[in-house]
TrEMBL record:
SUPFAM superfamilies according to UniProt: Bet v1-like
CDD domains in alphabetical order: SRPBCC_CalC_Aha1-like
Lineage, broadest ranks: Bacteria, Pseudomonadati, Bacteroidota, Sphingobacteriia, Sphingobacteriales
Protein name per Swiss-Prot or TrEMBL: SRPBCC domain-containing protein
Highest taxon, organism lineage: Bacteria
Organism the protein comes from: Mucilaginibacter rubeus
Family designation: Belongs to the AHA1 family.
Activator of Hsp90 ATPase homologue 1/2-like C-terminal domain mapped to chain residues: 28-159
Length: 166
């Protein structure tokens, strides 16, 4: 594993935006798949000991992903994502909100913009997350930072396993 990979997590309260830059020791097509395919997302997109379970995902502009993060005692926290833009292998955008189990969104939400690039087998993912509400962003940021960092560590481990299979 390459321990020299970039990881930057910056909160800009004035812009109500979180900026995340993360490098992965894997080629771009695999990293893209890890962020855009349900069967791979469900393997890493929850901080342990929680797990992720997607009810459905339709990765296309106008499509949605509806999923839950499930705690070890079975409590579910649902999220609804709506894909607003997709440029294969380089960018996608979505609108994210918490939701109840019946898909009713809890607004306000956030706008996520993912950008992918690769150089010498290292894939860089830049994510900006604009929060519609500063209050929401401040309430979530500390826990989100820790949880997202754990999720990305899950992804590092999974990418090693998936790279060996290809």
């Amino acid at each position: 594993m390459n321990n020299d990979l970039l990881f930057d997590f910056t909160v800009d309260k004035a812009a109500q935006t979180v900026y995340i830059t993360r490098e992965f020791d894997a080629e771009l097509p695999l990293v893209w798949d890890a962020f855009t395919k349900q069967e791979i997302l469900d393997q890493w997109a929850a901080p342990a000991p929680m797990r992720c379970k997607t009810k459905y995902m339709n990765f296309e502009v106008g499509g949605r992903r509806f999923y839950a993060m499930i705690s070890p005692d079975g409590q579910e926290r649902w999220l609804l994502q709506k894909y607003t833009s997709i440029t294969p292998k380089t960018n996608f955008k979505l609108y994210n909100s918490f939701a109840d189990k019946d898909e009713n969104p809890e607004l306000p939400g956030s706008e996520w913009d993912y950008n992918f690039s690769e150089q010498n087998g290292i894939t860089k993912v830049n994510i900006s997350i604009y929060n519609e509400s500063l209050e929401r962003m401040e309430r979530l940021t500390d826990g989100f930072s820790k949880g997202f960092t754990l999720m990305l560590a899950n992804l590092d481990d999974l990418l090693i396993t998936l790279s060996r299979k290809s």
